[in-house]
Amino acid sequence: MGNIEWKPKKSSSLPLHLQIYNYIKRKILNGKWSIGMKLPSQRNLAKQFDVNRSTIIMALEELSADGLIESKVGSGTTVINNTWGVLASSPPPNWIDYVRSGIHKPNNNSVQKINEAETNPHIIRLGTGELSPELLSCNQLTKLLQMDMRSNLSLGYEEPKGSIHLRKTICDYLKEKGIETSPSSILIVSGGLQALQLISIGLLQRGSVIFHESPSYLNSIHVFSICRHEFIRYTYG
């Protein structure tokens, strides 16, 4: 970073620390002050901006609160990669102005026509996924509601742990292998990847060592991926 030729205007109604805050913020958001770049010391910044050190401290505190810089004792102040802080510090876009300045007209008329069509009973509303009244099985629903509710009525909802019949079958299979368990101790998952994810989060402790072939779909599990990167970093870093 070279010398800073810009200086805040002391005659401006905007406080000096806010002028400096806006200047540094623009430099960071425009990419001119890149991530990881070290800022000059507070004393040097005060000298280059021709202000008191307390003014620099106030400006840096505002930038740090926005997640744009980070100060550490012994390391100085650096620009950090805090994407959320950068987005939060930027004003939201004015979408109305964007629409007005575009080549396409606003869709207000189209929305009004859609709203009018929704009140028409002869138009099927595909956008909401509703069936036409003629397609509703009213007669079958009437017969269903009049049936003897003492009989078993299944709506297709399974228990949270999965199909009880499948869990009993798994218990019988495990029993042949010499493993005694109960259906309540078995959880059915949608696939092996989900099971590995549950194992990594619920059973393994932090720092557990995992060995697997590479390449492997285990890399798609976030926890295993972190473990692999940490292993490589500590082994070869």
Automatic annotation (TrEMBL):
Cofactor(s) needed by this chain: pyridoxal 5'-phosphate
EC numbers for this chain: 2.6.1.1
Keyword Disulfide bond annotated: no
Superkingdom of origin organism: Bacteria
Alphabetical list of PANTHER family matching this protein: HTH-TYPE TRANSCRIPTIONAL REGULATORY PROTEIN GABR, TRANSCRIPTIONAL REGULATORY PROTEIN
Protein family per UniProt: In the C-terminal section; belongs to the class-I pyridoxal-phosphate-dependent aminotransferase family.
Name of the featured protein: Transcriptional regulator, GntR family domain
Species, as recorded: Caldibacillus thermoamylovorans
